[in-house]
């Protein structure tokens, strides 16, 4: 067995939700939307940091041209997860509609599932001083990402399906 937890594919997810009560479908959609919100906020922060590297004239030109490659890679990985999660919200909506219900969401991705699409995003603080120039150190940035993302796509030691 792999030491890395892999999320189930869309067809398995669709099968797994067929027997769930409708309120659980909405609860799962809210949970997924919350995760999307955090990933999008993280991507904004990662992009801002990478852009600050590009703008820092104290760094060598080659470094500035590339920005922060790790941040840019993390943004791309987050986009893959966000797209998978949006697909899951779509599957949840389709399941509710298959049962004859009406989806109580906003847009196609369900960003307003059982609530407002204008959810307040939590402020990110790291509780420690930043590196000179108002930048975060690599470890501070990693910790903020860990705090924001939690264990959504990581092996948290639990058995069973990862929805």
UniProtKB/TrEMBL annotation:
This is Uncharacterized protein. Residues 95-163 are annotated as: Disordered. GO terms for molecular function: protein-macromolecule adaptor activity. PANTHER family: TRANSLATION MACHINERY-ASSOCIATED PROTEIN 17 (PTHR40422:SF1). Residues 95-107, 136-149 have a biased composition (Basic and acidic residues). It comes from the Eukaryota. One of its GO terms (biological process) is proteasome regulatory particle assembly. InterPro entries: TMA17.
């Amino acid at each position: 067995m792999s030491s890395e937890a892999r999320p189930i594919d869309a067809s398995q997810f669709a099968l797994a939700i067929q027997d769930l009560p409708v309120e659980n479908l909405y609860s799962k959609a809210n949970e997924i939307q919350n995760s999307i919100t955090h990933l999008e906020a993280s991507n904004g922060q990662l992009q801002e940091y990478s852009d600050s590297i590009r703008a820092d004239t104290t760094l060598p030109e080659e470094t500035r041209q590339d920005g922060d490659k790790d941040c840019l890679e993390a943004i791309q990985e987050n986009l893959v997860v966000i797209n998978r999660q949006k697909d899951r919200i779509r599957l949840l909506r389709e399941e509710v509609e298959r049962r004859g219900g009406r989806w109580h969401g906003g847009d196609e991705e369900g960003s307003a599932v059982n609530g407002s699409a204008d959810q307040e995003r939590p402020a990110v603080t790291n509780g420690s001083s930043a590196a000179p120039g108002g930048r975060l150190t690599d470890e501070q940035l990693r910790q903020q990402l860990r705090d924001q993302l939690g264990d959504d796509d990581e092996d948290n030691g639990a058995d069973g399906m990862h929805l």
